[in-house]
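Q: What would this complex look like in 3D?
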Amino acid sequence: MLIADQEILSMARIPGEKERAFSLLIKKYQQRLYWHLRKMVIVHEDTDDLLQNTFIKVWQNLENFRGDSAFYTWLYRIATNEALNHLNKKRAELINSPEDLEYLLSNRLDADPLFSGDEIESRLQKSVLTLPDKQRLVFNMKYYDDMKYEEMAEILETSVGALKASYFHAVRKIESLIKRELF
Amino acid sequence: MASNNKKTSRQDGFKAPDGYFEDFEMRMMQTIKGQQTPFHSIKKSKVIAPWLGLAAAFLIIALVYNLIPQRIFTNQMEVKNESTSIFEFSTANYFTEFELIELLTNETKINFELYPDSLFFKDIDEEDIIMLTSLR
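A: Here is my prediction, written as structure tokens for the whole assembly.
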């Protein structure tokens, strides 16, 4: 049975109990955050680095979490920032390269032994990769993670209307690409 | 938020190496234990002092570079400032991030066909679709 976030946070504030609370947090959230990050950065090794960075930041700031937002919102926000920063950094590294990041990640999917999706999944992933990072984020959170717009709005610090518009455009673009069989 | 099981089991073609999550927890716990190792405390002032000195030196240099030419070439500086401000206008200042995304994704507009029964449309009902499409 999963322990409620509030209980874990209370435990983290008890002297000598922080490690146990942190271990419970990892157990509870590592998979969700892993798949969230993996769909953004595609490569397992990069996902692993980002997931570690995320949890290290959580560990360092656990006492400072004031509870203004839901705990998982805070975790998702840290992980999301890690992913976006990583993608920006990768893009900066490729600035003089003829190939762009989306192309490289798309190729990586075909060769990745840790991607075993069928043709439809592969085509969908490649279509999703053509979206701008933040729109891709919105699409992943809605389509794959089945999050509510209100939760997404809290994580991404934007309005529900903006998210609906972003998701709507993402879907339009993906459907158009798939329909034209560009992927 | 949807149930935890639903989220953790869904991988959508992606796989993690066998035993990755069991191993990850262990690695993380080792990492944070490593972070807790005691270190020699250093007085904050000792660390900050040289940097403060450097910052002060830069500040003085920056002031000298900015103020002296301004006093000597006052007229020329004003002309230069006026000309640059005209080109600093950017439409991006007037849009939010998502509005910009919306503008940038307009390229698909011509070939667009609306599929209101699409499986992709989650929580976007007909009313939302009408609202979103009538915005154009």
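A: To summarize the key features: Chain A has two domains: 1-116, 117-183. Residues 1-116 of chain A form a domain with the Rna Polymerase Sigma Factor; Chain: A fold (CATH 1.10.1740.10).
Q: Very helpful, thank you.
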